[in-house]
Design goal:
The chain is an alpha+beta fold. It has a domain of about 80 residues. About 20% of the residues lie in helices and about 15% in strands. It has a three-stranded antiparallel sheet with strand order 3-2-4, with no helix packed on it. A two-stranded antiparallel ribbon has the order 1-5. The chain is globular and about 40 Å long.
């Protein structure tokens, strides 16, 4: 998920959030150390299940690069309540077990 997509969705809901980030090529991630967390849980649940995770395939990274409608609706609801949202609620995550060298990468900031 590109952080600019999240910043844009938050802006559309009335928030002004900026993020610093590094762009990391998904093909550099070791499949054996990576997994996709679907993040389908509801706001009031903390339990994780095996079906909340799927194997990571770098060639399918765009499959997970979307902001679900539930997230957009949530941002708008929290804004109307005058509350801060949980930024990445319902958004799929690629989880990596290990270190990633970002020494040669440019630190970017959303607009």
């Amino acid at each position: 998920m590109h952080p600019q997509k999240v910043a844009d969705a938050l802006k559309d809901a009335g928030y002004n959030k900026r993020f610093s980030y590094f762009e990391i090529d998904a093909s550099l991630l070791d499949r054996n150390k990576s997994v996709v967390y679907l993040n389908l849980k509801k706001e009031d649940k903390n339990d994780l299940r095996e079906e909340d995770f799927v194997p990571f395939d770098p060639s399918e990274v765009e499959r997970w690069a979307y902001i679900p409608k539930d997230t957009i609706d949530y941002y708008h609801r929290k804004q109307s309540e005058g509350k801060e949202p949980t930024i990445f609620l319902f958004i799929p995550h690629i989880l990596y077990k290990g270190n990633i060298d970002v020494g040669g990468l440019e630190l970017k900031v959303t607009s």
